[in-house]
Design goal:
Structural class: alpha+beta
Largest sheet: 3 strands, antiparallel
Distance between the termini: 17 Å
Low-confidence stretches: none
Strand content: 35-45%
Number of helices: 1
Shape: flat
Order of helices and strands: EEHE
Radius of gyration: 12 Å
Number of strands: 3
Mean pLDDT: 88
Length: 57
């Protein structure tokens, strides 16, 4: 299933972007953030919707 929106999760540590992950749904992104909170509590995660056109041409 292809949509016009994907969900980007930026992981931040000490105010700097540590990594970025892309997910098909908001639920997948939130599940990832919940797992990361248990594994690495010092990493802050920011989830935001982005247009798929900004990721792939």
């Amino acid at each position: 299933m292809m949509t016009d929106t994907v969900w980007q999760c930026e992981q931040l540590r000490a105010g700097k972007v540590y990594s970025k992950e892309i997910f098909q749904t908001q639920a997948e992104a939130e599940e990832f953030v919940a797992k990361m909170a248990r594994v690495a509590p010092d990493i802050f995660c920011r989830i935001e919707p982005i247009d798929v056109e900004k990721v792939w041409n």
